[in-house]
Amino acid sequence: MHDAVELVEGAHGLDRRSVPHRPWRRLLRSTIHFFSYNLILKRRITRVTWAAGFRLIVRPTVFHPRYFITSEFFASFIDRLDLRGKRVADVGTGSGILALAAARAGAASVTAVDINPAAALTAAENARKNGLGDRFTAVCSNLLSGLAPGALFDVILSSPPSFPGEPRDIADRSWHAGPNYRDIAPLFDQARDRLAPGGRVYLLVSSDSDLDLFSAMIVRARFRARLVAERSILIESLIIYELARQ
To answer: What is residue 178's DSSP assignment?
Structure first.
């Protein structure tokens, strides 16, 4: 791993390094996941909530934007972007909150993508209920692989699962990305292929993620990264990076 990290440092990868987690921190993270999975992610009822100024339905197995603050933090960042006339993709859309924020920021078209069929359905319904359905398409796809050939985007948004490890089910894929981030590793090469000239990727990661591995994947896809927003909370920091082609 040291060779990969040295490559990242010389090639504009993430400016943060992974920090080994002490036993108490691993226990705390496991406890948070236990309750989040069993009480929120695995729930069997559809809920209605308000988040980032949108009224949202949240179907079972779909990431809930009110209980996890990553969504509203990222949405507030998107609100400050000038997306007028832009083609935007939101990968791992969940409730669709980031895609809706992009439409509100002026995007000409927004494609909301999620491997969870319930999430794609939820995002489409939320777009209609918030008056943004005319510029909004929801697609059930494994990352960007299921999109039409030749579809390009000016902006790609993604808040991928923060942690490695085998997900228990489709709901847990919003938390765990497989061993060594297997399930999202192709995202960076796919995003590079789908970016229009001058395009940008905005990626939200947690300070508790394996930042060294994220950096290595970003550099291998020939992106350079720039930190553009950060929010510290009780147990971690949420960090948004802008990725551009090298």
So the answer is: B
Is residue 104 a contact partner of residue 132, using CB atoms and an 8 Å limit?
yes
H-only helix segments in the chain: 2-9, 23-36, 70-79, 97-104, 117-129, 187-194, 211-220
Nearest-angstrom CA–CA distance, 9 and 155 = 25
Distance (Å, whole) CA 178 – CA 197? 31
Mean pLDDT of 131-153: 96
- 17 HSE (CA, 13 A, CB side): 10
Out of 3.40.50.150, 3.30.1340.30, 3.20.20.70, 3.40.50.2300, which CATH number does the structure's domain 2-245 have? 3.40.50.150
How many other β-carbons are positioned within 10 Å of the β-carbon of residue 218? Answer: 25
Banded model confidence at residue 6, pLDDT cuts 50, 70, 90? very low
Q: At what angle do helices 2-9 and 211-220 cross, to 10 degrees?
A: 60
Enter the pTM of the model.
Answer: 0.91
What mean pLDDT value characterizes the chain? 91
Give 30-73 pLDDT, tens digit per residue.
888 877 888 888 888 999 999 999 999 999 999 999 888 899 99
Give residue limits of the domains in the chain: 2-245
